[in-house]
Amino acid sequence: GENVEQHPSTLSVQEGDSAVIKCTYSDSASNYFPWYKQELGKGPQLIIDIRSNVGEKKDQRIAVTLNKTAKHFSLHITETQPEDSAVYFCAASMGEYGNKLVFGAGTILRVKS
Amino acid sequence: ETGVTQTPRHLVMGMTNKKSLKCEQHLGHNAMYWYKQSAKKPLELMFVYNFKEQTENNSVPSRFSPECPNSSHLFLHLHTLQPEDSALYLCASSHPAPGQGSVRSSYEQYFGPGTRLTVT
User: Fold this and answer.
1) What is the pLDDT of residues A8-63, one digit of tens each?
2) Which of A31, A111, B42, B101 has the smallest number of Cβ neighbours within 10 A?
3) Three-class SS of residue B107?
4) Pair A92, A32: CB distance under 8 Å
5) Residue in chain A nearest B56 by alpha carbon
């Protein structure tokens, strides 16, 4: 089955700097890669996603890149702000219909002001 | 608010108790999911329902029994749990998968806030 590795497990950056979180997946059939942000006491919130037919996607300060050949994808946050502090999870879809998500272990992001 | 609500938000139960978790979505979705989030493991998919039919059971012990009476509601019935079952239980919903009765993408899943379960 699918296996998703996520690094780093914790990341501290200064406000205004960029943050990069990386994930690798094992199943070349996976075709959908979402990123979720989870704040304390809340459920995960989808912040950006990418499908396997696209190499990069950007939404304001957040971007995701996908390298299908190497089977890895990354989340990039620019101009970080204190409210970006949270746990971030990557995931990869598996299964015939793409709705079975396998999650990475998560990255605790701390933005220091 | 994501449009997915879960009750109760916190639950403490003994190993011999029977309790149920409830999830409701107001997004018009027809696929619903149960996930388990524990401190030492990544988010784990437990069950998937498409149009009220269970399409995935990810090798979940029978002491967890899901029920989906309609496309808006999902329950997780709990009985004779173990302390290691203590975790955050998350519900999610989405449009159903392509080929399962919908032309819309199933990809985006929206999560509720979760039920924090403690088994004593």
Assistant:
1) 999 999 999 999 999 999 999 898 899 999 999 899 999 999 988 889 999 999 99
2) B101
3) coil
4) yes
5) A100
